Amino acid sequence: MWAFYPSGQPNNGRAQAMGGFKAITDSDDKDGYTEYLKSYSSDDRPSKVIRIEGENFTDTVGEGFEVADHPEGLDGKAVITPDTGSISWKVPVDTAGLYNLRIHYYPLEGKSSAIERKFAINDELPFTGAEDLLFDRLWGNRDAGIKRDDRGNDLRPRQVEKPMWQLKPFMDSEGYYEDPYLFHFDQGMQKLTLTASREPMAIDYIELYQEKTVKSYEEVKKDYEAEGLKPVVNQNLMIQAEDAALKSSPTLYPLSDKSSPAVIPYDVSKIRINAIGGVNWKLPGQWLEWEVDVKEDGLYQIALKRKQDQLRGVYSTRSLMIDGEYPFKEMKQIPFNFGMDWKMDVMGGTEPYLFHLTKGKHTLRLSVSLGEIAPLLQTIESSVLQLNEIYRKILIITSNSPDPYRDYQLEKRIPEMTKVFKTQAAAIKSVADYLEQSTGEQSDKVAVLDTMVSQLEEMAAKPETVAKRLIAFKTNVGGLGTWILNVRVQPLTLDYLVVSSPDVKLPRAEATFGQKVKHELGGLLASYTEDYDSIGNTKQSDKSITVWITTGRDQAQVLKSLIDESFTPESNISVKLRLVPANILLPATLADEGPDVAMQIGEDVPVNYAMRKAAADLSGFPDFKEVASRFNESALVPYQYGGGVYALPEQQTFPMLFYRKDVLEEIGVKPPKTWQDVYNMISVLQKHNMEFFLPIDDVTNNANLTPNAAFSMMLYQNSGKFYSDDDKKSALDSDVSMEVFKKWTQFYTNYKFPLKADFPNRFRTGEMPIGIADYTTYNNLTVMAPEIKGLWDFTMVPGTEMPDGTINHEVASHTTSVMMLENAKDKDASWTFMKWWTSKDTQIAFGREMEGLLGEAARYPTANIEALEELPWPVKDYQNLESQWQWVEGIPQVPGGYFTGRHLDNAFRKVVNGSENPREALSDYILYINDEIAIKRKEFKLPN
Q: Per residue in 243-294, pLDDT tens?
């Protein structure tokens, strides 16, 4: 780690220069890059550059590959590669050895996510990291300046793609290795293959080359002296960080920071775009790039006004490139320590590093780097995998609720257990010690590690206590997984950059006492005068509607920017968008103070309003059928009532089967295709004390309990239904329903499935290696469980075999909707808005903006069929989703239907907890359901 001292504080809270930490990983990981390098450590590094022209490919698999002449301004030919399939080249290598690889590519229009490729040499994957190579798209602000709404607030600039030809080395997408990958090539003709995982790209050429060695600052300083270079005088350039020319991701949009009156620009009450980065600029490989126009040749210092108020006990690391190259070695790792306030940091501290800049334009690129954190993370990730493996072995013997008074003799039955505990305790302790010494503080990050070390040491010394400590052990290993998540992210906020001569006095970073007082008093006064509920422009045109949204401010701001940019200019209808609590819609509607359109509404609301003549029937609009064709028929089912349709679906989610590939392989089973396969695998899972997860809703504070997802899918797969006789009574008294209910409850009575489980966390540890869950669980696992990346997958739920041999995979979906109120003042304008909102283009734009804003965890589950296809899903995963979507059914909403989910759950719990006969329990509660439906139909004067 390179020493980096904040300006004016050479000895205060600094990152100490220490010897590099070496990752301690599982020696069995033979497919990793570290082992790969070791096996070729004696190889030569040939200096000859070997270029492979993209258009000279020898083989392709799949369609869509073509040679283009002068594509996107290129001088020559290139090959267009789609987002699926593979392409191969033959390359003659004169000298065997280790080579770096780089690619000259152009990001073709796709789904706005990074391009992903898998690389093979002679049809073999050289190491695991080569299956996940990422190539960035380029993003920037759409408009040159910052626009304002009609209330004087800055509007966050939209991020648009700014594609251009780029030269990028093959690198580790996880950020564990800061230098480009090295690949071994034998002498003779070699075959190179790139297989697409996500997004299309044009390829000009691929090169085998050697990365230049970067000199240290001391060596560069001697070069300055030899060339007679001197520091410039009276030069001072301030670059506002929010004016970044290019960025690697649309998430890196400019921010508004109101934490200090010293930020530039600043306003006491209005929103001002004045910073960039923050928690969005945190993932390894993400970068921001600025242009600086230097007035004269010479040596300059570079300073940043920054804030790192997120990572206590760990430093956030960046690397700096000028015009695409590291100026010297120290700029590969620049650590920024924790601090709640803004700080002015000069590169190099009290003796600033000097950078040689010639007159004219230059680019400064700051990239997120794991730096010295990388080997620490590798060590802990390896520990988590090994400890989870031991946990599963213990689980096989003890189950997840071991007898505290029994000695299981685990040290004899798992001979390697105590050795693993000792080894991992030592490895984790070395990480904790290194962190404490390098940051100079005993923080919560170190405490988590110390707790794990203490427990491992005690369990190694007293193996007979392991069974008693199993729950605590699992919790602590889960804590290590969370530690990886927290430490891997490297947030940093920037206000501005300064490129100046060393003699210039830098601006003060912190606000003065007077500025702070004025700021606090101004904020207090503004709270009485500013309208913080309305979002964006509030000026009304000739046609105007009021729309309420009940989710979050981020969603509201993205929606309002889309309205102001495309809807209002095209339709000449102004929209007053208000962010309101979900429970305010009913009282507001009763008082005739409600909106024209309500968004993000639960699927039980529209039909309940329609019964009371408070929701507008959309089927009367002449183009309704055309609009309805955007959705799967199942998505409209909950909004149909009395021949009308009372809402349009926004989101639609449904269950999928998630499974751990590594664990199922370990125990010798395959993902089930039918429920019979599930029964067959239960015994194998339970033999290993593992469990299968079926979803059960939490009944606590859940008044609108929907029918259980597992029961619903089994009912639909057996041609059952929820209501009969034109929805006048429950159909759950049918023989099919009774049999399905019995089978569903048997999972819990006979097979002892858990009634409550934290599926994502137990999926991480492997004790619940398979389960059925909402498909949005995919997003959470992608972000929250990096240590099992590549070890899991999802597919269609188990189906029911039909008499003709086909398998029925039907599932019930859950939706949210947009609804027009019956008392809307301008129904045509409201309908125009609803059509625009649910259209393919708007849903894609909203989905991409939300993912850009909040990351992959916020991937939008749109109900629009064409829009979902355009969201940035990896091709294979989208195909799995689409396969299941064909089998989705909706659950109708009927008067009194809220009793169905509630009493289905009551009957279920009577069977599982009270050991009652399934048929009798369900029959008793069906009486209540039918009574409620009859009462409600009578209340709304409907025929019974």
A: 999 999 888 889 888 888 888 888 877 888 999 998 889 889 999 999 999 9
Locus of tokens 């090295």: 182
- Between strands 166-169 and 97-107, the pairing is antiparallel
Name which of 141, 361, 106, 113 is nearest 245 in CA terms. 141
Report yes or no: 166 and 138 within 8 Å, Cβ to Cβ: yes
Q: Output the DSSP codes for 701-761.
A: T-SSPPPPHHHHHHHHHTT--SEETTTTEE-TTSHHHHHHHHHHHHHHHTS---SS--HHH
Within 10 Å of residue 92's Cβ, how many Cβ atoms? Answer: 10
Residues 656, 877 contacting (CB under 8 angstroms): no
Whether the bond between 265 and the residue before it is cis, its omega within 30 degrees of 0, is: yes
Reading the block at residue 178, the tokens are: 């800061």
Residue with tokens 């929010």: 242
Q: Token digits for 789?
A: 């990346």
Beta bridge partners of 189: 92
Q: Is 566 exposed, middle or buried (0-12, 13-18, 19+ CB in 10 A)?
A: middle
Query: DSSP class of residue 213?
Result: P
DSSP string, 435-482: HHHHHSS--HHHHHHHHHHHHHHHHHH-GGGTTTTHHHHHHHHHHHHH
The encoded tokens of residue 883 equal 């396969």
Instruction: Say which residues have a Cβ less than 8 Å from residue 298's Cβ, sequence separation at least 6.
Output: 229, 230, 231, 232, 235, 356, 357, 501
Each residue of 137-172: pLDDT tens digit?
999 998 888 888 777 888 888 888 999 999 999 999
Q: In degrees, to the nearest 5, what angle opens at C-alpha 530 toward C-alphas 529 and 536?
A: 155
d(CA 442, CA 460): 25
Alpha carbon distance 206, 131 (integer Å): 17
The label of the residue with tokens 């920024």 reads 336
pTM above 0.85, yes or no: no
Contact 919, 732 (CB under 8 A): no
CA dihedral 325, 331, 333, 339 (to 10 degrees): -130
Q: Which residues of 368-384 are buried (b: 16+ CB within 10 A; e: fewer)?
A: bbbbbbbbbbbbbbbbb
